[in-house]
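Morning!

This is the sequence you dropped in the shared folder:
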Amino acid sequence: MALQNIPSNDTLLLVALLAVFLIVGYKVLDVLKNALIIAALSAIFPFVLNKYFGTGFQTTLNSELTYVVAGVGMYFIYEILVIALKTGGIVWQIAKIAATRLYGFMTG
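The structure's back. Tokens below.
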């Protein structure tokens, strides 16, 4: 077996990297699935507006592509903001812990 000659620390590192790879892969597939749903909804958006609300939106191929790009673009911006807020929250919690232990304030 190929893993017999690897020291145990390297094996733990490989298992940790595999776990990170699986988590990141799952998140990427989830974002791609959501992007496809958003693209489909963005494509039918002008048809729904025209049929149910009587608006006069264009439904040419060029305008459909514009709606799809706008919808998926806004979704990706949303995902980036969510990642930034989560990362900022984690950094803030680490800073609070560090400040409490180093300087003894910010308790609570």
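Headline: The mean pLDDT is 89.

More detail when I'm at my desk.
O.
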